[in-house]
C-alpha cells in the first residue's frame, strides 16, 4: 500500500509530453477538472492573472497547429487549452506557468495525454495566436496545451540528479 506522498510522486513522474491522440473526445467534465486544477495554482499576491481559451473547433485548431513547427499536435487533439496572462501583473509568467503545470498533472491523473507547447516569449507566435482567437493586446499567450486520449505510451521516469542539489551553500 503506497502512501499519498508516494502516489503523488508517481503521478508527477507519470506526466509525460504526449503528442499523439486517439479520435475519442475529451469530456467537458475533464476540461473543467483541468481548469479547476489550473486555477488552484499558487499566484503572487493571489492576483491570479490567468485566463483560458478552450478550443474544440477543428478549423481553429488547425490554424493553431501552424503557428510554429512544433505545434502540429493541436490539429489532432480534440481540445486545446490556451493559457493567457494579464500583462499588468508583474508575475503573469510565473503564475500562468504554475497553472499550466497543474493542467498537465490533472490531465495525467485523468489518464489523458497533453503537452506544453510554448508560445511566449516569441512575439510573432503570440501575435499569431492572438489573431486566430481574437485575444486582446493586453493579454499575453504563455502556451497552448493540446489534450486528448493518448495514442502513444510513455513510461514514468525519475530525472533526479543528486549533482543538482547543494546542501547549505553552493
Ligand atoms: C516552456 C516549454 C515549452 C515547450 N514547448 C514545446 C513545443 O513547442 N512543442 C513540443 O512538442 N513540446 C514542447 N515542450 C515539451 C518539452 O519538449 C518536454 O517537456 C520535454 O521534452 C521533457 O519531456 P516530458 O514532458 O515527457 O518529461 C515544452 C515544454 C516547456 C516547459
Describe this structure in words.
- With 170 residues, the protein is α+β, with helices and mostly antiparallel strands.
- The protein has one domain: NADH Oxidase, CATH 3.40.109.10.
- Helices cover 37% and strands 16% of the residues.
- The protein contains 6 helices and 5 strands, in the order ααβααβαββαβ.
- Strands 1, 2, 3, 4 and 5 form a 5-stranded antiparallel beta sheet that branches.
- Helix 2 packs across helix 5 (92-109).
- The longest helix has 18 residues, at 92-109.
- It is globular.
- It starts with a helix and ends in a 22-residue tail after the last strand.
- It binds flavin mononucleotide.
Shape: globular
CATH superfamily: NADH Oxidase
N/C terminus separation: 37 Å
* CATH topology value: NADH Oxidase
Structural class: alpha+beta
Largest sheet: 5 strands, antiparallel
**What is the strand tally?**
5
Q: Based on the structure given, which CATH architecture is correct?
A: 3-Layer(aba) Sandwich
In percent terms, what proportion of residues is strand?
15-25%
Write out the distinct hetero groups bound to the structure: flavin mononucleotide
Mean pLDDT: 97
SS element count, helices: 6
Secondary-structure map with pairings?
Elements: H1 4-14, H2 28-38, E1 50-55, H3 58-65, H4 73-76, E2 79-86, H5 92-109, E3 113-114, E4 117-118, H6 123-133, E5 139-148
Antiparallel strand pairs: 1-2, 2-5, 3-5, 4-5
The protein binds flavin mononucleotide.
Amino acid at each position: 500500500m503506497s502512501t499519498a506522498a508516494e502516489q503523488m510522486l508517481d503521478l508527477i513522474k507519470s506526466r509525460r509530453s504526449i503528442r499523439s491522440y486517439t479520435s475519442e473526445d475529451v469530456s467537458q467534465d475533464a476540461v473543467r477538472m483541468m481548469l479547476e486544477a489550473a486555477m488552484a495554482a499558487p499566484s503572487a499576491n493571489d492576483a491570479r492573472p490567468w485566463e483560458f481559451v478552450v478550443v474544440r473547433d477543428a478549423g481553429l485548431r488547425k490554424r493553431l497547429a501552424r503557428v510554429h513547427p512544433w505545434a502540429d499536435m493541436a490539429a489532432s487533439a480534440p481540445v486545446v487549452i490556451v493559457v493567457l496572462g494579464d500583462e499588468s501583473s508583474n508575475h503573469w509568467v510565473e503564475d500562468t506557468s504554475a497553472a499550466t503545470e497543474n493542467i498537465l498533472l490533472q490531465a495525467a491523473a485523468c489518464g489523458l495525454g497533453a503537452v506544453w507547447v510554448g508560445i511566449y516569449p516569441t512575439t510573432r507566435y503570440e501575435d499569431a495566436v492572438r489573431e486566430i482567437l481574437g485575444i486582446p493586446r493586453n493579454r499575453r499567450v504563455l502556451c497552448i496545451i493540446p489534450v486528448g486520449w493518448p495514442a502513444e505510451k510513455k513510461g514514468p521516469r525519475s530525472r533526479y540528479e543528486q549533482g543538482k542539489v547543494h546542501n547549505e551553500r553552493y
